[in-house]
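Supplementary material to the annual report.
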Amino acid sequence: MPEKRSSLVQVNTVILHTAALLLLPLQILFSVFLLLRGHDEPGGGFIAGLVATGAVALYLFAHGVESTRRILRFEPQEFLGLGLLFGLASALIGPLVGEPFFTAQWYTLYLGGNTEVKLSTVLLFDVGVYFTVLGALLMVVISLTEAED
Amino acid sequence: MSHLVVIPILIPLLAAALSIVSWRSVSLQRWIAIIATGALLLVSIALLQLTREHGFVVMHMGDWAAPFGITIVTDLLSAIMVVLTGIIGFSIAIYSLATTPEGHERFGYYPLMHRLLAGVAGSFLTGDIFNLYVWFEVMLLSSFALLTLGGERAQMEGAIKYVALNLFSSALLLSAIGLVYATTGTLNMADLGQKLAQVEHHGMVNTLAMMFIVAFGIKAAAFPLFFWLPASYHTPLVGISALFAGLLTKVGVYCLYRFFTLIFTGDVDYTHTILLWGAGVTMLSGGLGAAAQSEFRRILSFHIVSQIGYMILGLALYTPLAIVGGVFYIMHHIIVKTNLFLVSGLVYRLLGSYDLKELGGVYRHRPGVALLFLIPALSLAGVPPLSGFFAKFIIIRAGIEVSAWTITGIALLVGLLTLYSMIKIWVEVFWKTVPENVNTDRLTGAKPDKGLWLLLLPIVGLAACTLFIGLSGQPIYELADAAAEQLLNPALYIEAVLGTQP
Amino acid sequence: METLMAYVIGTMFGSAVYMLLRRSIVKLVIGLMILSNAANLLIFTVAGLVRGAPPLITEGLLEPATAITDPLPQALVLTAIVISFGVLSFSVVLIHRAYEVVGTDDLDKMKDTDT
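Predicted assembly:
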């Protein structure tokens, strides 16, 4: 039997180290793209949340738990709570305008010319899903990595 | 249309989100827990009042009319169950303030508790079977995490059994829901009540009914699939045990009541006979299992199983009086059983053990605590004039009325077994002298305990509820009677949800 | 196609139960994974398999002119996948912790709570 390897973090090369640094912002950007593209086209909060978690997990493998916690700034459970709050907010907008809970509300912003942005409670809910998935999965991944150490 | 029907789900969800966000401040989480569960209790009472006035309160989520959207609906039974959820949630929140170690609080005790309450309330209020599955999973996932908080050896072993059997039942429930959709093309409970009756293939309907009996039977801890319950319920913190004991299995029982009065009523001879014998064996195995135990919470866990048998018996007899008895039994049982677990936690705090051999002398030093045990214990055993007496009385009388002698005999016998278990606890914990080498500083009051009143408060409150149900049972009986009348007239429910005459 | 799927699903349920009955907790969790996938596949299949038909009705029509796919089972399966994903990731953490605490993955040796 070889020596017990204490964690994944030690499987570390310069290539992984550098690639994780460069890929993290790109993947986060891609996840936001997926999030905003959802509803009418393939994408949405769940998938986007998974992609974002993948980005952070890659960074975690390359740089370890300490460094990951530092760049996240917030604890995973705070993302989770934030996501739940977004989801609830999307439910509560319906009754504010006198309709049942979760009734979708659409507001269109005209930005001059032919550009228009549709804001909706559906998007708000997707943002909530995004953060909930991100928070929940990060909790699992980080706690498993810490248990390895 | 009233928004009130959704609020009992939204309050715990909001409280869960807020207490996760404020995870750094334990004191803030405690305040949120007290305020949110208190608000849940008040809202649920208001909802019960509203339901009594209107019969049903219905709301279609997202304004998608039934049967296409998800409907949230209360009839009297759901409203009663939500009130009980509020009572138990509030009691446990107060009790938790003094009994939860700091480590548990930091690891998300309160958010998980709120999410569990949201899952329970959601299961009671939804009118859509797939949505029911989702709430079940919300509830289960929180209960898994609560069960393993602390991570001791016994907890891990209990949790593996609990998780495995409950996930198996979830998979079965999910398959059954898929097959129901394939057979009828609808998921709305009210719509199913109409459409399943028109399915020509009776074998298929009975197969589906059996799948639901097994799936909910596992969750309700009915025979022969109750083994996960006594293996796991005595392992976590006592507050969590009490919360599970009061609410989780009763969600399974509630679902059996909902499904087998509203949806599967086509072949009562077949389905309800199976339920009847399941109920009988459940009662017996729970009662006999408890007789062999010598650990406070394990005895109580086995008695959850035996009491579940009584509730299912009420449904299985399927006469108006039996359903009244079943509903009455659920109300009585949730309060009494939670209270007994809370008392076991109080004794643990005084003497530092759950093992009957290492306990004793509580009556001599704390007669008040002994009285607080006696009230729920005798009520559970069915001694008049406490709530359990009337609950058992109604069910047994219903059994005699339809000449179901064997099952009534079993019910009476298990009543005796319950009394035996309660006497055993009484003798060992309260009556006999304190064993040597047990530290009695807390029991005799030599070592003052500031937080003790927080433990006593919910116990006294729940004991008062038991006494109230027992001594002035008339309004409670009338409530159960009205609920049973609604359950036996599914046409009313269907009309309230779908807005048409069936 | 439906017949083939029925056999596939049956095999999956069978192997899931076989895995659940093994003594190792790792195999128990693998069994639960196969079981939840089998249930998802069951929902997907029993609601009817239609190939290459979008769940859309041509604009202006009140009912579909050609064969369409029922979108609801797919929504159900998606929800169920998300839920089982969460539950199973919890189970993996659980067996990992249990293995550390109990020191065995043999279910027959986990008898502390049965006596």
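Residues 267-471 of chain B form one domain.
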